[in-house]
Amino acid sequence: MKLLTVAEMALRELSRRRGVLVLLLALPLLCYVVRHGQVGQSIRFLMLGLAWAVSTAALFASGTSRHIEPRLRLSGYRSHHLYLGRLVAMWLLGLAVATPFFTLVALDHGGEVRLGALAAAMALGVAVAAPFGLLIGALVPRELEGTLILLLTISLQVMIDPADSITRLTPFWSSREIGTYAVDHTGPEYLARGVLFTVVATALVAILSTIRLRTRLHLRYAGR
Amino acid sequence: MIDERWLQALGQELARHRLTPEMARHVVAEAAAHLRDSGQPALRAFGTPQRYAAAVAESLASRHHPARRPPGRVRLRASQITKRYGRRTVLRPTDLTVRAGEVAAIVGANGCGKSTFLRICAGLLSPDSGEVVVDGVLGYCPQDGGTYDFLLPEEHFVLVGAGRGLDRARSRRLGRADAATLQWEPAGGVQARHLSGGTRQKLNLVMAALGDPDVLLLDEPYQGFDRGTYIDFWQHVWRWRDEGRAIVVVTHLLNQLDQVDQVLDLTPGSREVAA
Q1: In chain B, which residues have their Cβ closer than 8 Å to the Cβ of A67?
Q2: Which end of chain A is less congested by CB atoms within 10 angstroms, N or C?
Q3: Which residues, listed in sequence order, are joined to residue B82 by a DSSP beta bridge?
Q4: How much is the pLDDT for B144?
């Protein structure tokens, strides 16, 4: 119940930032449109744009709640209510952003791509992007630094040679590859790798949030 | 001033002076009857509502101030708290004990560690040494911030209320009731970012007190309040004290210090608790 209340309020807050919502939709759309002539490229860029948008939203959601979460802890919330509630909100937001793009690609290239794989790639992209944005927000307290780290990550993923082994370490590689699989033929191991990345990023967010929002050692409650 | 508005203002001022609602209604009715009979304008007959209410309250003070209950058990005990930021010592060993039904004021010059001490008591900041023992539920009101810009006040009530185990309807009802006592009616559809500084602090205060915490830690919560709301705030503090809560208020305004139970002065060189 507490977790869902946090998720609901995070969604309500984001849904009132209309400019942000427009930009969240514009970013993947632009990525898709600029490579529209090439099916594979446009879908891979769409994946990247979607992940970028969701992780940026998660980063800023983490920033806006940084000063409020300590008082929510005092109000009876546990750390996991707060970070999981926010994560659920970002996943739902990401799926809401992804859905129109899935429809767009289905209408645009429905006969040329595997729609099931495309849906999996989008879901995985959102699944990875939300905890990744929260993780940057947990690691770097200031939004400017966080935004630059995110930009650096995305730039690296765009510029790096896909044949280079370091690409496998970048957070959005798996969803990109499943996006590729939706068009071409690649192995299913990317799905497992993407899920693993999601789990690791979520675990790191959990650890960092729990440390930041811990009950301090000097504070003792009588009778507990 | 139109008499109706004068009478309404008188009612509010009487409430601020802690007259019971029945007594306030009685005084307002008597004043209205006098104005009707005499045909005089209210300002000429009684002066300003503030002055007349103060005069009435003073004359009734001995009869209508409830007797103080003796302080109860210790709700907050901070022992030997110290804090340094780099080379700068912010808090030298500092102690504070507050019982149920007591108000403690933390005073001192800017930068002497008032907010730091309160944040340590709330468990939001670790001290370099010392310990804090709390008996009961904590409520904390920060100096500023502490709200979501794009959420409505009632959504803040629901958010905090859910943490305290209250359902939505009760959270809203309690929040609205507390807001009304601060002369604030949270209008539907107004997000926190559109509230004035003073109203946002009222929201902060209502959030801190929601669910009746046993210990209230208030960090200069009246910033931006107008005169009337400032008085209302202190009436809240006295009411909470009478209900048996332990309250710690960080303040730099000295005109209420004669009414609090203890004053912790954190100004370097005068580190002591005055009872």
Answers
A1: 142, 145-146
A2: C
A3: B129
A4: 78
* Residue of higher predicted confidence among B35 and A2: A2
**Across the interface, do A64 and B148 touch by the CB < 8 Å criterion?**
yes
CA angle in degrees (0–180, nearest 5) for A154-A158-A163: 125
**Which stretches in chain B have pLDDT values below 50?**
62, 64
User: Could you tell me which residues come within 8 angstroms of residue A218 by beta carbon, excluding any fewer than 6 positions away?
Assistant: B81, B120, B123, B126, B127, B130, B131, B132
What are the φ/ψ torsions at residue A217 (nearest 5 degrees)? -65, -30
Q: Which residues contact A57 (CB under 8 A, 6 or more apart)?
A: A14, A20, A24, A90, A93, A94, A133
Distance CA A51, CA A122 (A): 8
Cβ <8 Å between A75 and B146: no
Angle between helix A189-212 and helix A115-139 axes, rounded to 10 deg: 30
Residue B170: what are its φ and ψ, rounded to 5°? -70, -40
Q: Which two tokens stand for residue B178?
A: 């507390």
Query: Strand B272-274's sheet: what is its strand order?
Result: B138-141, B215-219, B246-250, B103-107, B262-265, B272-274
Q: A with B: how many residue pairs have Cβ under 8 Å apart?
A: 91
Q: Could you give the 3-state DSSP secondary structure of residue B216? A: strand
| Contact status of A211 with chain B (Cβ, < 8 Å) | no
pLDDT per position as a tens digit, A134-161: 888 888 878 888 889 888 888 888 787 7
pTM of the model: 0.79
Residue spans per domain, chain A: 2-212
Is B85 in the A-facing interface, judged by CB distances under 8 Å? no
B133 contact A CB<8A: yes
The answer to whether A44 and A27 have CB atoms below 8 angstroms apart is no
d(CA B32, CA B38): 10
| SS3 state of residue A219 | strand
Tokens of A208: 């960092």
Reported ipTM: the value is: 0.83
Alpha helices in B123-190 (DSSP H): 153-163, 168-181
Q: How far apart (Å, rounded) are the C-alpha atoms in residues B73 and B99?
A: 5
In angstroms, the separation between the Cα of residue A125 and the nearest Cα of chain B is: 27
